[in-house]
Specification:
Elements: E1 21-25, E2 27-29, H1 32-37, E3 42-44, H2 45-57, E4 61-63, H3 65-72, E5 82-87, H4 92-104, E6 110-113, H5 138-146, E7 150-153, H6 166-184, E8 190-192, H7 200-208, E9 213-215, E10 234-235, H8 242-250, H9 253-271, E11 275-276, E12 279-280, H10 282-287
Parallel strand pairs: 1-5, 1-10, 2-3, 4-5, 5-6, 6-7, 8-9
Antiparallel strand pairs: 11-12
Helix pairs in contact: 2-4, 2-8, 6-7
Length: 295
Amino acid sequence: MNHGRPISNKKPGEGNPQKIKVLMYHRIVSEEELSHSYPWLCTHAQEFLHHLRLLERWGFTPITFEDYRLFQEGELNLPKKPVIITFDDGYLDTFEHAYPLLEEFGMKAVIFVLGDRNMRVNTWDQLAGLPMSPLLTEQQILEMHSAGFEIGSHSMTHTKLPELPHEKAWDEISRSRMLLEILLNAPVKTFAFPYGLTDCNTKKMVEDAGYAMACGTYSGPPCFGNDPFEVRRLFIPGFTNALRFATQMLTPYEYYAWARWRAKLLLIGNKQNGSTNGRIAPSKILSALNPAEKS
């Protein structure tokens, strides 16, 4: 496994970046009870280790969004089979369990953290009845960043951005980037929408705030790069065994997931109970998802 820059026999700027798969995890835990009870949030460390072994066996090389940006600028080659591993919310166990395993395999990932460093626990999970969990400290964020992990913004306070007034949404998006850049002493170019919720206005704000890319969850086009401000990710729930993981990684699974999403949007749109002027309310979109699809 390459510990430095991804290497391929392609010239810079060549290749098919639309084949890049972006994986989304939340918590990597050591307690089996958590992974069994909350599989849409928690993946057991042994299962995650199995995923990393499979990625290595199948020839995938984890890259970051920054690597992709450098590839676009012709400064970096892409590996033959790139994959981007992401973690949302910035939980402490990302540092305790995921980080050591990724380091063991010489792999790196993208960690989306909150800009409000006074938030120490996952208060947004309380309404769903999920256990409280500590978040990453500044020192832990800095250590992973120094190890080559990309740090992205997940807003200031993990709120539903499309439901906020414009000024508040702008503050969540722009100030989080500013504060994280001060912490890292480095640019922060990637954003992840809390709950995967976005619309045209919030995407425009993310672009105006200076980000280069933004990640959704279950929305966005199936091809990577077709919409840099709504990158579709493959959600990896805690019950993802080898067969399910192979289906997601070795087949065009993102097209199937996209088709399911479009069908759900059509069904919700036909009801229009939560829409305004033909637009579907974000809360209705979120409530229509299965628990294992929520972010």
